[in-house]
């Protein structure tokens, strides 16, 4: 494995670790940041694991707040940055009595040792500690060999671990897609067996993990794996029907015959056992959308949807940070954009098409109302963007708000890129100044032209109504 690049380690995270160590506690960097550093990636967040209790951490750092009910931990603040600091924990089920058959973890506040803490984590690649004092990676769970082999493997029995917390199945898909890893065969087989357990998880946790799948610059690969494993059928049969068979290559990849692979006898025998053991994903028929009546139209838009996911991944790699609603809209917009922007469709019919394409997904993923409303506004806003482009008019932030207009502009740009067209020419007006949009008149070049800003909660104040400036002493 490559050595850790200290230039990529967050200085505030190191400061937290060293201060806890100086206070007599054991403290390490832990989890995803260590994994990413070993893979040569840039960690997005840095977490700390320590022998200090939450109250000890709060006593050590004035800029600290304890959060959580199911999982109490400390947040150490450095401006807007948060270094999540958790006390070493043990598996809570080891302290419980008779097993009633339900392995779902409902509390997680049993303190333990560093070894117990590593073993209670989900995957071996996330159970690594980095010790600043020794400048060494501590591995209690076999994470280093799995990183070397580029495998996602649960710590312990995968069936048990997935039943304890079914959201771990989504995390397995996320790490495999984002870090370009394979899911270890026994872990993969257990994921297929236990995928229906995801329905037991709290809907807000599930939808938040879906957003993370979409936001990690690996949305396309995540959706491919979700389809291949049948997990997407559990999350949203509607979305699985929309995307299934659209040229992702995922299903074909899963059904490659043994003689087409370069396998030795042992690998071929294991593959047969694994395939015999795994359930066959249940495929739902493609949903019938009333506005798609032409033969082959769904397939055409489905192919565009996969290309759209590639563009979304490129956007994130360039530093984009799409909101939750923008991620959901990106999933849906290829199927409805041409209908919404058609000059022959009436506004009422366009609005109905937006409802028809979005509401099943909102219901099945339990999307928050605010996000759902923003998705609808963004989709319908494409009509305004198309009209402005066709008539060479500036974009106006009225009739839906600045937020929905900016969302629509971003979706339009992703669609243009997915179609292989030119980059988006229109831009949302900045700071309430509609004339800054594309297509503004040449008055923008007049240095004497006075600009007015729209004030929230009141009328526009005319320049001659403004009070005189106070004299400078």
Task: Walk me through what this model shows.
The chain is globular. The strands form two sheets. A seven-stranded mixed β-sheet has the order 3-4-5-2-1-6-7. Strands 8-9 form a two-stranded parallel sheet. The N and C termini lie far apart (67 Å). Helix 7 crosses helix 10. It has three domains: 1-149, Beta Polymerase, domain 2; 156-235 and 245-282, cca-adding enzyme, domain 2 (Orthogonal Bundle); 297-433, no CATH class. The protein has helices at residues 11-22, 32-38, 54-60, 114-119, 143-149, 158-164, 167-178, 185-194, 203-215, 219-229, 231-235, 237-243, 250-254, 265-277, 297-317, 324-340, 347-365, 369-391, 402-418, and strands at residues 27-30, 47-50, 64-67, 73-78, 81-87, 128-131, 136-139, 151-152, 182-183. Residues 94-98, 246-261 and 423-473 have low confidence and may be disordered. Strand 3 (64-67) and strand 4 form a beta hairpin. By secondary structure, it is of the alpha+beta class.
